[in-house]
Write a structure and sequence with these properties.
alpha+beta; Translation Initiation Factor IF3; 4-stranded mixed sheet; 28% strand; globular
């Protein structure tokens, strides 16, 4: 069984380099998990904003689910309306 790719957001927070890294991972993967470290945000509302920002920069074929401080982002093969 194939492992899900895992990334972390640390004290630098959400940067363009991180978004580019996520985009490059999605060239091979369909699902990734992103752990948000305590140094990146202080509460769950900030974690929710980070998830929304990542998905908005990736495009409309992506959705995310936040559980605690872990984001699971999924890519769809077909366009989402």
């Amino acid at each position: 069984m194939r492992q899900t790719k895992r990334l972390q957001i640390g004290k630098k927070g959400l940067s363009q380099e991180f978004i580019n890294q996520v985009k490059s991972v999605f060239k091979k993967e369909k699902i990734i998990k992103i752990s948000i470290l305590k140094s990146a945000c202080r509460n769950r509302e900030e974690a929710e904003k980070i998830g929304e920002e990542i998905v908005s920069q990736l495009g409309k074929n992506y959705i995310y689910k936040r559980i605690g401080y872990v984001l699971t982002i999924k890519k769809f093969r077909k366009d989402v309306r």
